[in-house]
Design brief:
7-stranded mixed beta sheet, Ald_DH/histidinol_DH, single chain, binds 2-aminohexanedioic acid, 512 residues, alpha/beta, globular
Length: 512
């Protein structure tokens, strides 16, 4: 294990860090606000960052617009080669970056390393994609005509990411966008800017080595003002935003008002249906990892268990005893399963949700609460808890970004599916069963309404190869694998006439 001081040095994190970077150039306006970044792990200050001003933002956009003009002319496989090198650089820095993710954000070291692995995986995916980016060809209704479609780069992609996956979300967006010929401006969460600065340095070394222009991959540190500038900016054709539903609605409205494109990855309220035909040991691992992994701060975290009445009591017992085994503490210590929440505000929301749940009639079978004591001095550590509830409770309908797990009983599979779908969000869902009929019913048009539906796997931990995202209040966007790349490009339909006449489509006659 590396020492944090060594890691900061290795990842080029200064005591005070500049507000923006267009590549080799880092800068900030005079008198910029300086904000300390403290770790939820031990409450210690890690470093400070300056916040960008509107003027800083405009400088970045001007540089990015300029860089786009050259980057789009670089052949896609050559762009892929740059991304391949970024993947290699991430491999070389996996331990250091994964550790800093764990220290700045609070997720377990295993999960920090796993997050960097997702970046490496999407880099590999994007490299292959750089020789594909396929369009279709069609048969024209007119003789000696040819029709096809092609995908062109879009321009500047604005990436607004959240604290919970502080670096991977950038890579899913930017590494695809880069092979697509776009340039990127990344506004990381103001809670986790240091890991973003580290990524900017890692990528920048690759750009520099390859003499790539300034402005292809940009970073801007700031608060929601910067997000608002991006959302309203017609120079930024696509905004990809990850975060709360409230933030997503604001971004969507601003981008929609100018008819821009947005890719939204918002809240989830993910459930696992545990059927009478489930392997209960497997279900236990899926449920507990889903609920306490990343301290319940994944958008794919398991929030609800919908359990068949015949196995309800037995499974509840298993859960209660498993929760008794969970070790909470410093996430860099590999013996611990669960680290802290991101900050004091998150702890307050968690405590408030527990109160609201109790007020609505929720019965806690594993009690929650804030942890006190020397090991928890940052004030961000809480106990994962479990409550028996009704699906319609207001608090159950709401995504609380914390390790609170709700238990709901069901009788028929139809009822279970209705409960699973009976929330405003639609990100991830799962069924645990060895019964083919019930699994297929869950996956059918009459089944889960989520963007992700798994069988005998929990709700979190999706692989990068599939399209990632969800329906309803989750926002409808898809990023990462499959054909998610298409949102980063503009589609053009081309019809070419190689005959000596000009026949019109639909048989229209127009003789001069
Ligand atoms: C998120 O929580 O914002 O499926 C993303 C998962 C991870 C991604 C989570 N691959 O849990």
């Amino acid at each position: 294990n590396l020492d944090i001081k060594d890691i900061l040095k290795r990842l080029h994190i200064n005591d005070i860090n500049e507000a923006f970077s267009t590549g080799s150039t880092w800068g900030s306006s005079n008198g910029a606000i300086v904000k300390d970044i403290t770790s939820p792990v031990d409450g210690q200050k890690i470093a400070a960052v300056k916040f960008a001003t509107e003027n800083d933002y405009n400088q970045v956009v001007v540089q990015a617009s300029k860089a786009f003009k050259t980057w789009r002319t670089t052949p896609a496989p050559k762009r892929g080669e740059i991304v391949r090198q970024i993947g290699e650089a991430l491999r070389a820095n996996k331990q250091a970056l994964g550790t800093l993710v764990s220290y700045e954000m609070g997720k377990s070291l295993q999960e920090g390393l796993g997050e960097v692995q997702e970046m490496i995986d999407i880099a590999d995916f994007a490299v292959g994609l750089s020789r594909q980016l396929y369009g279709l060809t069609m048969h024209s209704e007119r003789p000696e005509h040819r029709m096809y479609e092609q995908y062109h780069p879009l321009g500047i992609v604005g990436i607004i990411s959240a604290f919970n996956f502080p670096v991977a979300v950038w890579s899913w967006n930017s590494l695809l966008a880069l092979v697509c010929g776009d340039v990127c401006i990344w506004k990381p969460s103001e809670k986790t800017p240091l890991t973003a600065i580290a990524c900017q340095h890692i990528a920048q070394e690759v750009f520099k080595k390859n003499n790539i222009d300034e402005g292809v991959s940009n970073l801007i540190i700031g608060d929601r003002n910067i997000g608002e500038l991006m959302a309203a900016d017609t120079r930024v054709p696509l905004i990809s935003a990850t975060g709360s539903t409230r933030m997503g609605k604001a971004v969507s409205a601003a981008v929609g008002a100018r008819l821009g494109k947005s890719l939204l990855e918002l809240g989830g309220n993910n459930a696992i249906i545990i059927t009478e035909n489930a392997d209960l040991d497997m279900s236990l691992i899926g449920a507990v990892f889903g609920a306490v992994g990343t301290a319940g701060q994944r958008c794919t975290s398991t929030r609800r268990l919908i359990i068949h009445e015949s196995v309800y009591d037995a499974f509840k017992q298993k859960l209660v005893s498993a929760y008794g085994q969970i070790r909470i503490g410093n996430p860099l210590d590999e013996n611990n399963h669960m680290g802290p929440l991101i900050d004091a505000d998150a702890v307050a929301l968690y405590l408030d949700s527990i109160e609201k749940c109790k007020a609505e009639g929720g019965r806690f079978v594993v009690e929650g609460g804030k942890l006190e004591g020397a090991a928890y001095a940052s004030g961000c550590y809480v106990k994962p808890c479990i409550a028996e509830v009704e699906n319609h409770f207001k608090i159950v309908q709401h995504e609380t970004f914390a390790p609170i797990l709700y238990l709901i009983k069901y009788n028929t599979i139809e009822e279970a599916i209705d409960l699973q779908n009976g929330v405003p969000q639609g990100l991830s869902s799962a069924i645990m069963t060895n019964n083919l009929r019930e699994a297929e019913q869950f996956l059918s048009y009459a089944g889960s309404d989520c963007g992700i539906a798994n069988v005998n796997i929990g709700t979190s931990g999706a692989e990068v190869g599939g399209a990632f995202g969800g329906e309803k209040e989750t926002g409808g966007g898809r990023e990462s694998g499959s054909d998610a790349w298409k949102v980063y490009m503009r589609r053009q339909t081309n019809t070419i006439n190689y005959s000596k006449t000009l026949p019109l489509a639909q048989g229209i006659k127009f003789d001069l």
